[in-house]
Every structure is written in C-alpha cells, then in structure tokens.
Amino acid sequence: MTADELVDVEIRLLLEGLQQVYGYDFRDYADASIKRRLTQWLAESPFETFSQAQSRLLREPELFVSLLQGITVNVTDMFRDPSFFRTLREQVIPFLKTYPFVKIWHAGCASGEEAYSMAILLNEEGMAGRYRMYATDIDEAVLAKAAQGVMPITEMQRYTRNYQKSGGTASFADYYTARYDRAILAANLKKDIVFAPHNLVADAEFGEMNMVLCRNVMIYFKPALKERCLRLFDNSLLPGGFLCLGLKETLERRKMGDHYDELVPGSRIYRKRYG
Ligand SMILES: C[S@@+](CC[C@H](N)C(=O)[O-])C[C@H]1O[C@@H](n2cnc3c(N)ncnc32)[C@H](O)[C@@H]1O
Question: Are residues 52 and 162 in the same domain?
C-alpha cells in the first residue's frame, strides 16, 4: 500500500468515527475536496497523521469544531454572481410579487451575504414586510457571524460594484453604517431573516417555500448526497416555486430534473412544475 492509499484509509476511519461520535456525516462529501480540506487542517495542527489526530478528535469536541470549520468552505459575497441577482430582479420577483407573502430558504448560507442581498432586492421591489427568510448552515460559528450582519469595510467597494452590476440603482452606502473597519448592515435588512443550524446530510425539509436557494454547496457533495438535497428541496417547495443553484451546478442528469424548467438557459434558476 502506498503512503497516499494509507492516508485514504485513515480518512475513511476518521470520518466513520466522527459520524459515530458527533453525528456529523461527511462520508458523502466529494473525496478529492474533503481530502484537500482535511490535509490542510492537519498541516496546521500539531498532529503528524490522521491516526494521531483521531483519538483527540473523538474525545475533544472543541477540536472537532476546529476540524468542522476546516471542512466547510464559507466563501461568499454580497450579490455573488451579479447576473444571477439581475435575473432574480427581472424574471423572478415579478412572480413573487403576485403572492401576499413569500417564504424563502437559503440552504448553506455561510455568513449571510446571500440572504442580505435578497433582503435588499425584495425591499427595493416593494416587498418589505411580505417575506420571511430562513437562512441555514451546518457551521454554527459562521451562522453566529451571519446573525451579526457586520462585514469588513474593505469589501464594500467590491459589493457596491456587484450590486450595481445586478441592476441596483440606489446608493449602496445607505444599507450600512461604517464604524472603524467594519460595515454594520441596516436593521431593516436583518429583521425578517431567521438564521438557524441545519445539516443537509441529516435534517428534514422546511415546509411550503416559494423559493429555495442552495448555491455553491452541493459542488462539495457526491451524487447520492446531491440527490438527497434535491429531494429535500423538492419536498420543501410549493408548485410554481423557484429552486436556485450555483452557476456551476445543474439539474441536468438529476432525477428531480423532470419536475422543473430552467427559467432562462444557464441561469440555474428552476421553476417547479404544477402537477
Ligand atoms: C461556499 S459556501 C456558499 C455560500 C452561499 N450559498 C453562496 O453561494 O455564496 C458553502 C456553505 O455550505 C455549508 N455546508 C457545507 N455542508 C453543509 C451541510 N451538510 N449542511 C448545510 N450546510 C452545509 C458550509 O458551511 C458553507 O457555509
């Protein structure tokens, strides 16, 4: 057995142990990506091998939390992929406006930027007070950050450009207050978002959603886990509801693909068929 194959065995044993001890199951995450993340964590840890780390990881929950944060990729942006938000504004919001009240689920919301971008969009389109958002993630540390709604001030120029590219015409600076090196988001953007822990591997659906966004999360999963997530989203969505994936993700070749039509080719915004 080569040294690399031995590492694969150690990783399999470690993931099995974590599942049994903490109930977090990463065995259906894509092999190459989880190996890369774990190897990076190991290089920054005091341990030389996964076997060495394993006994401490299974006994020390704080150490497991640091590993969890190493496994999850929390990269996100305000108005990430501005063309996606432009399509939402032009093609999706007009449908949503026909409902008295809408419910939206952001699955894998990281530090909340996607949900806050959506709140800006909905408020600008006259839907203030007519929506509730559920923004969930497996990583509770990143959720705590999300709930604060505080971002580095250095990002604001880039976020302003994204906002403008997405079709925003207001002054982006009106949505936050600058304080030293931080930007504090306006309270009216936060008040209708509920941040909560939810694990796509194990937890149940959210009922009666008009829209589910799960962008740039399933790229880290094996096909069987992608199918599980899509079933979960399908069970959560009302007929006529919208499912939004990341630009590198697709419903093609997925069982659920037959129940949906892509709104604009390449947009990765899918509408659930009636019946
Ligand atoms: C790259 S971020 C995507 C953030 C946002 N959706 C976007 O596109 O900007 C991926 C997020 O998925 C979360 N995640 C990973 N596995 C998950 C799981 N099993 N259940 C829920 N969230 C998960 C990670 O913690 C991370 O915050």
Answer: no
Give the count of beta carbons closer than 10 Å to the beta carbon of residue 149: 22
- pLDDT of 131 > 90? The answer is yes
pLDDT of residue 254: 78
Q: Are residues 65 and 91 in the same domain?
A: no
* 154/234 same-domain check: yes
Ligand 1 pocket: which of 138, 217, 228, 236 to mutate (most atoms within 8 A of CB): 217
pLDDT for 193 beyond 80 = yes
Q: Which CATH number belongs to the domain containing residue 187 in this structure? A: 3.40.50.150
Q: Whose CA is nearest to atom 11 of ligand 1?
A: 108
Residue nearest to atom 12 of ligand 1 (CA): 108
pTM over 0.85: yes
Q: What is the pLDDT of residue 169?
A: 95
Domain annotation covers residue 102: yes
Within a domain: residue 11? yes
Same domain? For 95 and 182 the reply is yes
Same domain? 103 vs 37: no
Better pLDDT: 254 or 51: 51
138 lines ligand 1 (CB under 6 A): yes
Decide if 226 is inside a domain: yes
Banded pLDDT at 5 (limits 50, 70, 90): very high
Q: 72 CB less than 6 Å from ligand 1?
A: yes
Ligand 1 near 30 CB (within 6 A)? no
Average pLDDT in the chain: 96
* Ligand 1 contact via 78 beta carbon (within 6 Å): no
